[in-house]
Design brief:
Number of helices: 5
Largest sheet: none
Distance between the termini: 64 Å
Number of strands: 0
Strand content: under 5%
Helix content: over 70%
Oligomer: single chain
CATH class: Mainly Alpha
Number of domains: 1
CATH architecture: Up-down Bundle
Order of helices and strands: HHHHH
Shape: elongated
CATH topology: de novo design (two linked rop proteins)
Structural class: mainly alpha
């Protein structure tokens, strides 16, 4: 009877480890998909910034900063574009405020699209940050570390521009 109980206990523990590993895998997948969605929105924002730059009469310095950060945001790998994303966020925030105060004329369509895109990016950032925190919290548990349930998956990271307010 004790052998059967021992075998059942081992099977139950094995099932628990398998279930835990699958849960962690789903969370890693959630991080990846949330990042892909966020990155697509950031790419769209960079394209919109270039469109705004070409269709408005900005002063040369603002235009240069906007175009430079938009190009870097579109072309560089994520680890190299933290500063560009921050700069682009600040430039677009300045442009939105200038357009609202009447100092700058931006087409209503571009301004509405920028506002809607900013809201989507804010939501996508919060979803991505929550997913990263969930994975980090789960991976910090002793059982996940002891049995190496994360496999070879890298610990997801939070990029500095994600903590900025748009």
């Amino acid at each position: 009877m004790t052998i059967i109980a021992g075998v059942l206990l081992v099977l139950l523990f094995t099932w628990y480890l398998s279930f835990s590993a699958a849960r962690l895998d789903r969370l890693h997948h959630r991080v990846e998909t949330s990042w892909e969605h966020l990155d697509a929105l950031l790419q769209r924002r960079a394209a919109l910034a270039l469109e705004i730059s070409h269709q408005t009469d900005l002063d040369p310095a603002t235009d240069f900063i906007l175009m430079q950060s938009a190009y870097v945001s579109r072309e560089e790998p994520i680890v190299d574009r933290n500063d560009a994303e921050r700069s682009l966020s600040e430039s677009l925030k300045f442009l939105r405020e200038s357009a609202r105060s009447g100092e700058l004329t931006i087409s209503v369509r571009l301004l509405d699209e920028l506002t809607a895109l900013t809201e989507k990016i804010t939501l996508a950032i919060s979803i991505h940050l929550e997913a990263v925190r969930s994975v980090s919290k789960l991976r910090s548990r002793r059982i996940y570390r002891l049995f190496h349930l994360a496999g070879k998956a890298k610990l997801p990271r939070i990029y500095s521009f994600e903590e900025d307010s748009l």
